[in-house]
Structure formats: structure tokens, C-alpha cells
Amino acid sequence: MTSNLDTIRATYEGSPQDNSRHLLAALAPDVRWTEASGFPYAGTYIGAAQIVAGVFQRLGSEWEGFAARVHTYLEDGDKVAAFGIYSGTYRQTGKHMTAAFSHLYELRNGQIIRMDQVVDSHPVQQAMKD
After folding, report:
1. 33 and 55 Cβ atoms separated by less than 8 Å
2. pLDDT tens column, 54-99
3. pTM for the whole thing?
4. Does an H or E element contain 97, and which?
């Protein structure tokens, strides 16, 4: 049986294609995914289609080499926290950024039912400014 920690690790530690495939497979149909205020994609998205369209497609089209690299995981029952660094270059300005983040996941029966992001949005916003 795969642990909650293993489920979340599989969404960060492979190729971008593998990470995406593992994330989509782990999302509950009614997952609530919240991007932090101040982040360019802020808001709460419900379900995989909203998450993909509102967050991941935009990251892929607006940023060159966008990455979320985790340095620490913490697991407590049905919750897993991932702490790391975002990096990427905003295509429109050509500016690079690095920003600290944390993602808190809640899982039920091996599926992600909630994710809440905390991020240092200032470097992200600066990279997006002309």
C-alpha cells in the first residue's frame, strides 16, 4: 500500500510528465486546491479540470522552466506538507525568480482532497513586472 507521503512525493520527484500524471491520478474528483493571495494564480479551484486550466496550463505557458523543488516533507496522518523553492523565468519579461513555498495536502483513502499553498509571492510578482 502506498503511503500518503509516497503519493505526494510522486508528484514532485519525477519528470514533469510523470509528476503531472501522478498528480492527476491522486486528485479526488472534488479536490479543493487553493493558491495563495498575492500569487498570480490566487484562488480556490475545484476539481482537476479547474486546477489544470487555472494553474498548471498557465504556469506552462507563461513561465520558462518553471519548477517546484521540494527540500522537506512532513507527514502527520492524513496531512502531508511539502516545503521547497519555485524557480522559473517569466516569458513576457525574461526575468528569473526563486520563491519559497509550502504546500499542505490533506488526503483521504489515498486521494488528495485539499491543497493549500503558502508562497513568498514578492519575487514572483517582481519577475512579472516590466
Report:
1. yes
2. 999 999 999 999 999 999 999 999 999 999 999 999 999 999 999 9
3. 0.95
4. strand 95-108
